[in-house]
Specification:
Helix content is 40%, strand content 0%. The N and C termini lie far apart (48 Å). The protein is built from five helices and no strands. The protein is flat and about 50 Å long. It has a single domain, classed as Ribosomal protein S18 (30s Ribosomal Protein S18, Irregular), CATH 4.10.640.10. It is mostly helical.
Length: 80
């Protein structure tokens, strides 16, 4: 058995639940860009603290914004 104690840390609250957002709009690039890392990947809910429901909506919104060319698929730095 592993005798190491786990750190008692609370999960970060979901930003969208706190703001009572039902729908994550793909046109709101300022909000969506907070959930993408520098390489253009979608951050996990474990890192961002979003609940499962809003993580699914967030990933859909990010993918729609990529298709509409509001945000890039990959960063400029990697393209070169």
């Amino acid at each position: 058995m592993n005798n190491k104690k786990r750190k008692n840390s609370k999960r970060r609250p979901c930003m969208f639940c706190l703001d009572k957002m039902e729908y994550i709009d793909y046109k709101n690039v300022e909000v969506i860009s907070k959930f993408i890392n520098i390489h253009g990947k979608i951050l996990s809910s474990r890192v961002t603290g979003t609940c499962a429901r809003h993580q699914r909506g967030l990933s859909t919104a990010i993918k729609r914004a990529r298709i509409m060319a509001l945000i890039p698929f990959i960063s400029e730095r990697i393209r070169r």
